[in-house]
Prior knowledge:
- The protein is built from 19 helices and 40 strands.
- Strand 15 (about 235-250) and strand 16 (about 250-265) form a beta hairpin.
- About 45% of the residues are buried.
- It binds beta-D-mannopyranose (BMA).
- Beta-D-mannopyranose (BMA) binds near residues 213, 214, 215 and 652.
Amino acid sequence: MQSVKVFRPGFFSLPLFFFTLCSFFMNQLTFGQQVHQKALPSNWEFQLSPSGTNGPEAKSLSGQWFPAKVPGVIHTDLLTNKLIEDPFWETNEIKLQWIERENWDYRTTFEITKEDLSYQHLEVVFEGLDTYADVFINGNKIISSINMFRAWRAEIRDLLRQGQNEVLVKFRTPLIENKQKLEDYPVKLPSGNETVDLQVGSFTRKAAYHFGWDWGPRFVGCGIWRPVYIEQWNVAKITDVFCRTISMDKDTAIVKIQVEVEADIPAETDYSLNFNGRKIACTLKPGNNLVVFDYQITSPKLWWPNGLGDPYLYDLAVELTSGNKLVDRSLTHFGVRTIKLVNQPDEIGTSFYFEVNGFPVFMKGANYIPQDIFLTEVTPDRYQKLIADAKGANMNMLRVWGGGIYENDLFYQLCDQNGILVYQDFMFAGSMYPDFDDFKQNIKEEVAYNIKRLRNHPCIALWCGNNEIEVAWANWGWQKKFGYSEKDSLRIWNNYLSIFREMIPSQVGLLDPDRQYVSTSPLSNWGKPEKFNHSSMHYWGVWHGKEPFENFKTNVGRFMAEYGFQSFPSMETIRKFASDSSFYLESATMANRQKSYIGNGMIKSYTESWYGESNSFEEFVELSQKVQAEGIKMAIKAHRMNKPHCMGTLFWQLNDCWPGPSWSSMDYYGTYKPLMEVARKFYQPVIGIMDTDNKNFDITLVSDKRERVEGQMMVRLINLNDEIQREWNLPFKLHPNEVQKVFTIETKELLKGLKEKNVYMELDLISENNLIFNDTFYFVKPKDLGKN
Ligand code: BMA
């Protein structure tokens, strides 16, 4: 048994890093690795393509090439060259819609040396092209991309020459690309946030939120949005390494390792695979090879989600060698853990909870959307900050929502390292899709590519087919809105079933058999009380249903995968996109910024009902954040108190993709709203929940821990002059995962001689001499506090 190494805090542990570095240089010096990535230079340029609409706004650009950034997107390239104004400023979004109607070309030149040409293979790899693009090398078409979520590669050795070579990428707008298909399709298909006449999103495998959403702008761009390079190789290369924990107890874990190798060899040849110091002999045949072996780890260290233990990671360095020659090496990491979604009938209805390493885990977190409307603006620092923020807020799960993107590797690496589980949607949201065979084949390739790319990450808890398509089909009146006949409905629904209940789950079963799949989120829908007994829930009675916050207390589902309330970003953030003259809700800027059909009116009425009328726009902005925090606090408390009926709470939404009002807990610039503090406090492993109904005042303690907790609980009744009126000091003991009502008193008896508007309660939990939780509770809304 070789020793195993820790993977934290960085990408590699220090000992492994040196081991890797030394063996890398040794290998380089003695025999030279045979697979290389050659970066393309950064001298990219772009132009308005003569093939597009060439509308009046674009005219001045024709015939000129401008410097471009790769990876990058067209809008930021236009901005950097000062060809457009800031897309986030005031109502510029409206002015800049012309960009989506144009086609755009990107090109660069690169040097190929004699040594480059000595390789048997030179493959160009585009990890992401958004979306319809033809790629030419020295005038020869090599790739026709039709999907933003797939990588594209092509063998180009024979097209290259020693010296300068050119790569040209010609992007076509999805609007023109799909025009005919849309017109010919016998019915209109609902497409996310787009209006009835604009459903191009459904036909385009591109991030749905680019076409506009109820928290973001519409900017349909294009670009080489992920890295591009040339892969040079001889004889063989490792194309995939897959690690699966197939059994595990406290003494031993068996990890099955599957290595895929592509070999360009004339006949069967002997090779070896070395991993973490062990050597496996293998015979490769020409073409694709699969080498499978078991890796036994004694006394395995388990991967635990945030709050329950260390998210321990193991490194795996696999080297392919021929004799003493290093052919290729691949580095990955994995966690030893089991995860199971328990989604089955029980005495209440249908459960929906996760067991990690056999322990039922209450999930606490939020829904995540892409961090920028212009994806290549998200730097590694922004990823680091966001995941650190989630961890700091005591979250253990994020849902990667289906209208965005399959995130960058870094996102999942950070989740692995920080114990943040991921509820991973496939990228489909609130739409119905066409049933062309080539479109479905495209989806199949996308799904397979992303499962293979992501399946080694222990953070991924679940694959989910899509966002809200099943609830939408059943409840949003699409059939009427789009005038479907029974036959149309059947055709659309059958196509849905074939994608989300057949094709995608069969890919998951084939490529990632240890992870579960659900067809959609949510599996149940709010509306009728009985529905809260079943599976996952997006509860939108508050907000879309205009119900009061108090309904959060009674509408508690088995797993609350979405619920939320909007607020404005801070004034500091607002000042970055609006001038003082726009500081009122009816201004053109504020009206355009609000993308929800009931937006500002809702915020206003809840803010007034909790805090009274605001005296200024600035005050309104502040109160909008406070009222949001109050609402979500009420929800989180109700969800946690109702464990194990409810086993998860993910509020909508963690972050923003541009500065504006939305359901987020932190704004586009990462500035916290008060909701982040509510999450931090009420997502702690042990909390005390104070609450009243018409009769009693209660305190319920909740522990999510794997160990027993005990300590002292101090309860104080205090008046508004901060004078203690009554106090209690009581011991408490909580078993793992326990919810215990520890304090009940008739409110009348508690407040004897005092008025509820003049007092508040304070609770401290002390364990092992530490204050582990503190909260205050008011009996009346803030606007009534201390009033006569
Ligand atoms: C949800 C999400 C998003 C949307 C949010 C707020 O259900 O899935 O589609 O932004 O509601 O309306």
